[in-house]
Amino acid sequence: MGVEQRYPEILPFLDDTDDYVNEGTEITVDARRYLVVTQRGEEDSGQLLFEITDHGLEFRDSDTAVDVLRHGAESQVAVSGPCGASDANDHRDVHSEAMEQVDRFSSANGPDGGNLACAWAVRNIVHDTLARWITRTDATAIFDQELRACFGGTLQDNEVSAGGIIISPTETVNGRRNIGHVGLLGPHTGDGSRLIYSNSSSAAKWKQNFTLQSWIAKYRTRKGLKIRFFPLPLRGSGPSV
Length: 241
Prior knowledge:
By secondary structure, the protein is α+β, with helices and mostly antiparallel strands. It contains five helices and eleven strands, in the order H-E-E-E-E-H-H-H-E-E-E-E-E-E-H-E.
């Protein structure tokens, strides 16, 4: 029996904008019982967290990776230190690495064997290039909050160089928690052909899997999510995560 049949209460929360395969896992944390629902898709995946109570399921959280399954306490904590935009050389080097790692960089060591690794892949690609962490989170909503706190709001895509960030954070749309995504930008083209590099959930590989036009079609038009553009944040280096 599928998780939807066992727990029909979850149906109003599920992202139904794509062909997701849904799986439920019950876990106990600090004597509290939870149901974690993982929605696995071709390009992106996400999780919902419900607490199992005497009154039934109570929604607690949802993102590309939920806190209760974090891979170490630091992985959901923002990197400390000064913030601002990284310089042009950093963006150039990250863009070169993003292109070089297409179909080579594996996210299989990331959350859920790469299924929940869009933020994980971005932060590790950048760390491998610049030897510093731009975030410690594997969750798009948390990363988006960090970026907006750093830059005070989104920029336009023509204001962000190749190697910068595009993010559509997971959020509630008409009661459902629609799954977001994050990637790295190619050069600005002035139209919808701008390339975007990101993790592929199904392949657990770094891919050139979107253009700006196809990202807008999926995340803004189909899912109703916001699209934000940011430079790489300048952060101090930290211990590996």
